[in-house]
Write a structure and sequence with these properties.
This protein has 237 residues and is mostly helical. The protein is built from 11 helices and 6 strands. The longest helix is centred in the C-terminal third of the chain and has 18 residues.
Length: 237
């Protein structure tokens, strides 16, 4: 729930484990944090009195002399996903405000995740695929990959310098296939299409799309815009 003096964030989150009887308020807004912390010294507006009064009411209703303490912490947003989920769940599934004791939807998972008690994502039953590591797996779907090495046609194209006119990366001693070379394609894509013999068609298609994009977002001259809106005549007169 946020940092408490002399404790880490994890210890504060697990405050119930210490059997503390406290009212803990958390917020992501630093201004709200400062207002509640120093409310004795800040003059509140009329539209703020009711909202901030609720914090004091919660504390007063659960107060036990010598045992109950009030704490307020400023919590970063990434640690507050449970609250965000509850808000969205209520807006999508409820029509009135209500107070419940049970969990809602996936709230328990998100709460446990924020407290570091579960893995980042739910683990469900399903097929397990091998990691795409190693040369044999990284470019499995590319035509130039032959059991983890370049095929003969790909090597020949690189050695003869056929691709240097497309990008300078193919003229270097070490070719990084994950480099963006233009036309919306990477080096691996270019080499893939070369081996398949379909490179000219793809370059032509991507050039056409690029030209269409330029024409679509072309900017007009300021004078032409003013003339089209009849503003130039008004300024001249």
């Amino acid at each position: 729930m946020g940092p408490i003096p002399c404790l880490t964030e994890e210890q504060a989150i697990m405050a119930q484990k210490h059997k503390w009887d406290l009212t803990h308020i958390e917020t992501t807004d630093r201004r709200i944090f400062e207002t509640i912390s120093m409310q004795e010294y800040i003059m509140l507006q009329d539209n703020q009195l009711e909202a901030y009064g609720l914090f004091n009411t919660i504390h007063a209703n659960n107060f036990k002399e010598g045992k109950t303490y009030r704490r307020i912490s400023c919590v970063t947003r990434h640690m507050n996903s449970t609250v965000e989920y509850m808000v969205n769940y209520g807006m999508n599934n409820l029509i009135v405000f209500s107070e419940v004791q049970d969990d809602l939807g996936d709230m328990r998972f998100l709460l446990n995740r924020d407290m570091g008690m579960v893995f980042p994502s739910p683990i469900r039953n399903g097929a397990i695929f091998g990691t795409r590591r190693g040369k044999t797996k990284m470019y499995t779907d590319f035509s130039f990959n032959k059991n983890g090495v370049l095929c003969d046609e790909a090597i020949k194209s690189l050695d003869e310098g056929k691709l240097t006119g497309i990008s300078s990366i193919f003229s270097e001693q070490v070719v990084y296939l994950d480099t963006l070379v233009g036309y919306g394609m990477y080096g691996r894509d270019i080499l893939h299409y070369v081996v398949n013999g379909t490179l000219p068609e793809f370059i032509c298609q991507n050039k056409m799309l690029g030209e269409m994009g330029k024409k679509r977002y072309v900017r007009m001259d300021v004078d032409k815009v003013m003339e089209a809106m009849d503003l130039k005549k008004k300024i001249d007169t």
